[in-house]
Specification:
25% of the residues lie in helices and 24% in strands. With 312 residues, the protein is an alpha+beta fold. It folds into 3 domains: 2-104, Alpha-Beta Plaits (2-Layer Sandwich), CATH 3.30.70; 114-193, 2-Layer Sandwich (Alpha-Beta Plaits); 196-266 and 273-285, Alpha-Beta Plaits (2-Layer Sandwich), CATH 3.30.70. A 4-stranded antiparallel beta sheet has the order 1-2-3-6, with no helix packed on it. Strands 9-8-10 form a 3-stranded antiparallel beta sheet. α9 packs across α10. The longest helix is centred in the C-terminal third of the chain and has 27 residues, at 282-308. 31% of the residues are buried. The mean pLDDT is 90.
């Protein structure tokens, strides 16, 4: 077995070549926000979070954001980090193909990312949703009758807008469900369903004077903000509950974050149950297991009723 590691400011690449297969894990640092999700559930504890010390952070050096590292000796390339990353920053592959082992074996579910777009409501030339996305995931195109892509100014000035076709594409793999595109759309053409639900609370009486570290580190603009009174406020409509704010908060208990629900495809995996307990809480895990049990019971009853009521 041979292991390679290449670490640059933009990317961390780890490869492991066995006799038959070639495994790779790639971290896109330009997408990674330094949240806690992947490190919380890594079964090998191969992912660590590094939070710069507040006291040693140079003044004027920009946001004090956490960053993650991957231990190539511990990593088994299982792909759990790939599954849970809200921002599409981690990719696992096998023999140069995007293969996630834990999903192949159905031991870990895929997160549900849902965005509905009604392009019939989109006025040609409007790019509000594209400009609103902080991760550059939304692309708006206007196609003329001759197949040419028009610029926003050309689309707005086009004399026969009914001849134009608007196309909106979203890179769902990196969409965290912040809903900024939905909120900025003037025509209500976009509907975003959050991936993770939760609660966040700031105990302002515990916040150090003048500290805005959570605001600076938050990857979704406007979710945390400094009010007129100098205190930090919250807009939970756009919060994705990634946990970066909690990591950089210098005072324990000043910021409380709880994840209450994670949207995912159906699974009966014990690995997911363990991960869900770490990401949320034992109470939330119990509720999900009870919901699954009720669903299975209902399905069983429905099957029996169909069998009993079948034509003789």
């Amino acid at each position: 077995m041979r292991i390679w590691r290449k670490d640059t400011p933009e990317r961390l690449l780890i490869e492991r070549r066995l006799h038959v297969h070639w495994h790779r894990i790639e971290l896109d640092k330009t997408r990674c926000v330094g949240c806690e999700l992947c490190s919380l559930i890594c079964p090998r504890e191969a992912i660590t979070i590094n939070v710069p010390e507040k006291e040693s952070w140079p003044e004027g050096a920009g946001p004090r954001k956490p960053w993650i590292d991957i231990d190539e000796e511990k990593c088994h390339f299982c792909g759990i980090c790939n599954c849970i990353c809200l921002f599409g920053a981690v990719k696992v592959s096998k023999d140069s193909e995007p293969v996630i082992p834990v999903m192949e074996t159905e031991s870990f579910p895929k997160l549900l990312r849902e965005i509905e777009i009604n392009t019939e409501k989109c006025p040609p030339g409007c790019v509000e949703c594209e400009e609103a996305c902080p991760f550059d995931l939304v692309k708006v195109s206007v196609i003329g009758p001759d197949g040419r892509v028009l610029s926003p100014d050309e689309a707005k000035a086009y004399p026969r807008p009914e001849e134009l076709k608007v196309e909106v594409s979203v890179d769902l793999d990196g969409c965290s469900g912040c809903r900024l595109c939905e909120l900025r759309c003037p025509e209500g053409a976009i509907r975003v369903v959050k991936v993770i639900l939760g609660r966040i609370r700031i105990n302002v009486e515990k916040c150090p004077e003048g500290c805005h570290d959570c605001v600076d580190a938050c990857p979704v603009p406007g979710t945390l903000y400094v009010g007129p009174d100098g205190k930090v406020g919250i807009n939970e409509i756009t919060c994705v509950y990634c946990g970066v704010c909690r990591l950089v908060c210098p005072v324990e208990g000043a910021l409380e974050l709880e994840r209450t629900y994670i949207r995912h495809e159906p699974t009966r995996s014990g690995a997911w149950n363990k991960a869900l307990e770490k990401l949320t809480s034992p109470v939330r895990l119990t509720r999900e297991l009870m919901a699954k049990s009720l669903t299975r019971g209902r399905e069983t009853v429905e099957k029996r009723l169909k069998w009993m009521l079948r034509p003789a």
